[in-house]
Write a structure and sequence with these properties.
The complex is a heterodimer of chains A (114) and B (116).
Chain A: E1 5-7, E2 10-13, E3 19-24, E4 31-38, E5 42-50, E6 53-57, E7 64-68, E8 74-78, E9 87-94, E10 104-105, E11 109-113
Parallel strand pairs in A: 2-11
Antiparallel strand pairs in A: 1-3, 3-8, 4-5, 4-9, 5-6, 7-8, 9-10, 9-11
Chain B: E1 3-6, E2 11-14, E3 19-21, E4 23-26, E5 32-38, E6 44-50, E7 56-59, E8 62-65, E9 75-77, E10 86-93, E11 105-106, E12 110-115
Parallel strand pairs in B: 2-12
Antiparallel strand pairs in B: 1-4, 3-9, 5-6, 5-10, 7-8, 8-9, 10-11, 10-12
The chains are: A mainly beta (114), B mainly beta (116).
């Protein structure tokens, strides 16, 4: 069974630009969550999608948005990039929304804003 | 809100030494507890989990017991190997409030280095 696939693996963008990251969950998984990982703030929750609906959102500005498609694939978008958005962005998929359900992570997308 | 506190790192050990990484939590409801491991350049992998009080999660020689009375979930391994060098994250999900189910709250991570 294929794991969680995130594309691209690496991105370099300029301040003010926008970026779209993609996540393909494990087949059959319907919940997709996104996390930002930085050395200073650690792992922070961005949002969760289930059945194409955002179910939960972390404490990030409106520049961060996402969506989920009918095949459960998800994208996140960051507009008007700032230097502080440089981070590893991790996607996690789960088969359902149960709180005791294991999350499977992708390898992440490393975003560098210059 | 929910929070997870891990012991300060980094932790440096010699091969075959005993490992403990402390983790305590604050959560509403009845949280599920997890340990994830991150190897260099990789995403996170689940190491073990426990979903109710007194449960013991175990995997690859690592163990952790869900202690509700002390709100702790300390990670232990009796004999570490060089290949265990990685970053370890304690995390929880809570079933309190329908919107929180999918959200993992992480500790700050502990860097473990094991020398031959």
């Amino acid at each position: 069974k294929a794991g969680v696939t995130q594309t691209p693996r690496y991105l370099i963008k300029t301040r003010g630009q926008q970026v779209t990251l993609s996540c393909s969950p494990i087949s059959g998984h319907r919940s997709v969550s996104w996390y930002q990982q930085t050395p200073g703030q650690g792992l922070q929750f961005l949002f969760e999608y289930f059945s194409e609906t955002q179910r939960n959102k972390g404490n990030f500005p409106g520049r961060f948005s996402g969506r989920q498609f009918s095949n459960s694939r998800s994208e996140m978008n960051v507009s008007t990039l700032e230097l502080g958005d440089s981070a590893l962005y991790l996607c996690a998929s789960r088969p359902n929304r149960g709180s005791n359900t294991e999350a499977f992570f992708g390898q992440g997308t490393r975003l560098t804003v210059v | 809100g929910n929070s997870v506190t891990q012991m300060e790192g980094p932790v440096t050990l010699s091969e075959e030494a005993f490992l403990t990484i402390n983790c305590t939590y604050t959560a509403t409801g009845y949280p599920s507890l997890f340990w994830y491991v991150q190897y260099p350049g990789e995403g996170l992998q689940l190491l073990l989990k426990a979903t109710k009080a007194d449960d013991k999660g175990s995997n690859k020689g690592f163990e952790a017991t869900y202690r509700k009375e002390t709100t702790s979930f300390h990670l232990e391994k009796g004999s570490v190997q060089v290949s265990d060098s990685a970053v370890y994250f304690c995390a929880l999900t809570s079933n309190a409030g329908g919107t929180s189910y999918g959200k993992l709250t992480f500790g700050q991570g502990t860097i473990l280095t094991v020398h031959p």
